[in-house]
Each structure stands twice: as structure tokens, then as C-alpha cells.
Design goal:
This protein is an alpha/beta fold. The longest helix is centred in the last third of the chain and has 16 residues. The two termini are 36 Å apart. It binds flavin-adenine dinucleotide. Flavin-adenine dinucleotide binds next to helix 1, strand 2, helix 2 and helix 7.
Length: 380
């Protein structure tokens, strides 16, 4: 389906969610806007958070503003429009995006990049212990508030449980612990435990996993592998083997599932609720609609939900949006099979995995910081 706008009217390119991939379109628009088109950016929050620097900011290695992108500034520099709103649905026939608290917005092309949510967060959202990692914009504030108000028995440490065994959970655990060691917070000391239904740092090579396990053990961070968390109460969580573990705070950082809104849009999805796309990143239901980053799944070559893939899609989306209006050939997204992994261990070092190399050193942290700051700096 390709809708034709009335002659003379500017066509609306709407970006829903300004994460890794969509933000690139806004940046490119500053110097090279698509003729005859207007760019409208929809975001739930006035800032975007760069996840690669979130653990380091938690660990007080960076200032809060260093990991944030001010969307108003970014959008203003592009001469585009920013709308702070949350969508409530899509009218494919009319080519409109709907909201609960503002009039519908017409689109000629739409790029959906609303990210993902941690699996199972909704199920336990009623527990006062829960601090889900998303939305990332408010995570640090919510965690601080929680740790400040949590009460423990006199002289006993605060018990923080992190649910999810991916690399981001490992980084959060290590950086939180290192931050408390700095002694600048009113709520030290604390203990950190990780619960994962699989194994720790899944997706990394065995040598890297061994290194991570050793590091966690040396920092007294207990890991409960193969233990799915099935309940979160007021003072404890329960694993599927029936064991109960005391906790004062539960950071919920499990693997990515589709945000509920994606299922309401009337677009074909993959088995997990993410929008099904072709290699051009266009929805299989409607070719005016692109789905990028965590929100989309390229059905022919699905890739893990990770920022590196969202970033690799940037030039493809930018090229294909222009090609859509010019009726010129589109480019295909081919995910790379492996990528450089750098894991912040919170102590001024990082763990690198690249090909067969695994190392844990200060130079890795300097490399990671350089890459992260260079990336986020382009939008700030
Ligand atoms: C702590 C942590 C660390 C991570 N570290 C790494 C890493 O080092 N390397 C890596 O490759 N991956 C990492 N990831 C994964 C990475 O963050 C995601 O894969 C990446 O953010 C996906 O990019 P995205 O653009 O799809 O979504 P996001 O970056 O999440 O952006 C989506 C945006 O859409 C907004 N939004 C959501 N819903 C709506 C709505 N209904 N309407 C409007 N706006 C909306 C959100 O507020 C957000 O700003 C990490 C994840 C976490 C949680």
C-alpha cells in the first residue's frame, strides 16, 4: 500500500519513539532534509537515555546529563516538530496515528522504534519491591527513591535482587555495588544477588562467561542460575523451585519482550509480538510503516534485541525513507553475525569480547567510554 498525499501538501514522516535508529533520522535531517516532507517526532519523554552509559551513570562514573539526549534541542536543530505523547492506536486505512489526549496525526511514512520491555514485568508490577529497568529515562530516579525509602532490620544490609542474567544485569550489579563502595550514599551497605532462568551472560563465549562468573564471585554477588522468579511479594521473591529469598528491592532487567502497544496496531507481528518486517525494515502489512531497533523483527534474518543492531539499521532506515518518497531502490539490512562486546565492571575496567579475545582491563573501559561518548555526543 502506498498512499498518495494531495499535490502541494508536505508529506508527514512520523517517528514514533526516538531511540537509537529513529534519532539518527533526526540528526541527518539537520543537514539533509527530504524535500517536500515534514518530520514529526513522537516521544513519551522529553529526553532519550543511551543504555550503553546507564550502568556507568548508576556507578557514578558519568554525570546524569552525559547519558541523556535532550530531544527538544535535537529536534529543534533539525527544524522538525516534537510531540510528547503516547500513542493509543493506528488507523491504517486513514493513515493516522491516534492518541488518547490529542487529535490524530496523519502520516505518509511512519517509523516505529519504541524499543522493548523486560519480560514478565507486568506480572509482578503490583509488588512494592519492583523497580523495572524500563523506562530507562526514570530508572535511576526510581531506584534511588526506592533504596532511600527501603527499611531494613538495624545493622542488616539492604538486599538488592536483580532478575535477569543478561549482560546489562551483570553491569547493573557490578556498577551498583561499586557505587555503594564509594560511600557517598545514605543507604549503604547492600548485598546484590542475580536470579536468572537461564545462565549468566547468555550469548557470550564460554571463556567470557567464566571470567564474569569469577568476577561476580570475587565481589560476593551470588548468582542463582536456572531459577525462574515466579513471585515477588512485599519482602521476598519466590523461585520456581519453591524457595523464597529475602529482598528489599527487585531490579527487573529480564530479556526483551514486545511493548504491549505493538500488538494493538493491526500490523503483522512475529511470535513474540514484535512487528514483522522485510529486510528493508518495512512492515509486512503496510509498506508505509517501518519498524526498527528492538521493536521490529526482520523475519528472514532475526537478530538479538541489542542496541548494536539498532545502530546498524540507522543508515538503512535513512536511505529507505528517502527512497520511499523518490520511488528509488531500497537497501536491505543484513545483521552481522558477531559484534564487539564491552561490559562495564564498575571498577574503572571493562570486559571485552571480540572474536576469540576476552580481556578485563582498564584500556577496555577507556575504549568503551570513548565509543559511548562519541556515539551519544553526536546527538547532544
Ligand atoms: C541497562 C541496559 C544496558 C544495555 N547495554 C547495551 C549495550 O551495551 N549494547 C547493546 O547493544 N545493547 C544494550 N542494551 C540493549 C539496548 O538498550 C536496546 O537494544 C536498544 O535501546 C534498542 O534501541 P531502540 O531504539 O529500539 O529502543 P530504545 O533505545 O529503548 O528507544 C525507544 C524510545 O521510545 C520511547 N517510547 C517507548 N514507548 C513509546 C510510545 N508508546 N510512544 C512514544 N515513545 C515511546 C522510549 O521512551 C525510548 O526513548 C542495553 C539495555 C539495557 C536495559
Amino acid at each position: 500500500m502506498t498512499a498518495a498525499a494531495p499535490i502541494g501538501r508536505a508529506k508527514n514522516i512520523v517517528l514514533l519513539g526516538i531511540g537509537h535508529t529513529n534519532a539518527h533520522v533526526v540528526k541527518e535531517w539537520q543537514t539533509d532534509p527530504i524535500p517536500g516532507c515534514k518530520l514529526i517526532c513522537i516521544s513519551k519523554f522529553p529526553t532519550a537515555t543511551y543504555s550503553g552509559m546507564l550502568p556507568g551513570t548508576l556507578g557514578r562514573q558519568f554525570r546524569d546529563d552525559e547519558m541523556r539526549i535532550d530531544l527538544k534541542g535535537l529536534v529543534d536543530r533539525a527544524g522538525a516538530e516534537l510531540v510528547i505523547a503516547e500513542t493509543s492506536g493506528l488507523d491504517l486505512e486513514g493513515g493516522e496515528l491516534h492518541f488518547s489526549d490529542r487529535p490524530p496525526l496523519r502520516f505518509d511514512a511512519l517509523s516505529i522504534g519504541v524499543g522493548s520491555m523486560p519480560a514478565g514485568w507486568q506480572q509482578h508490577s503490583g509488588s512494592p519491591l519492583m523497580v523495572p529497568i524500563k523506562p530507562m529515562q526514570t530508572f535511576l530516579h526510581r531506584l534511588d527513591e526506592h533504596l532511600r525509602s527501603a527499611t531494613t532490620e538495624p545493622a542488616s544490609p539492604l538486599r538488592v535482587a536483580i532478575v535477569g542474567g543478561g549482560v546489562s544485569s551483570v553491569e547493573i550489579a557490578l556498577c551498583l555495588q561499586q557505587r555503594i563502595k564509594k560511600g557517598q550514599d545514605p543507604f549503604s551497605p547492600l548485598t546484590v544477588q542475580i536470579f536468572t532462568s537461564g545462565r549468566i551472560a547468555e550469548g557470550m563465549r564460554a571463556a567470557s562467561v567464566r571470567r564474569i562468573e569469577k568476577l561476580l564471585a570475587s565481589r560476593q554477588i551470588d548468582v542463582y542460575s536456572g531459577q525462574r522468579v515466579v513471585g515477588v511479594g512485599d519482602r521476598e521473591l519466590e523461585t520456581e523451585d519453591g524457595n523464597r529469598h529475602g529482598a528489599d528491592c527487585v531490579i527487573w532487567a529480564t530479556g526483551a519482550v514486545a511493548p504491549p502497544v505493538l500488538r494493538t496496531l493491526g500490523l503483522q507481528t512475529d511470535g513474540r509480538g514484535f512487528i514483522a518486517t522485510g529486510k528493508t525494515l518495512q512492515s509486512l502489512t503496510d509498506d508505509r510503516i517501518f519498524a526498527v531497533g528492538d521493536s521490529g523483527t526482520v523475519m528472514e534474518s532475526p537478530s538479538p534485541k541489542a542496541g548494536v543492531y539498532a545502530v546498524r539499521q540507522c543508515p538503512i532506515l535513512w536511505h529507505n525513507l528517502r527512497a520511499f518518497f523518490n520511488h528509488s531502490p531500497m537497501r536491505s539490512f543484513e545483521p552481522q553475525s558477531d559484534f564487539l562486546k564491552l561490559l562495564n565492571t564498575g571498577d574503572g575496567k571493562a570486559l571485552i569480547e571480540y572474536g576469540w579475545l576476552t580481556a578485563h582491563a582498564r584500556w577496555c573501559w577507556r575504549l568503551k567510554t570513548w565509543i559511548d561518548k562519541r556515539f551519544v555526543g553526536e546527538f547532544q
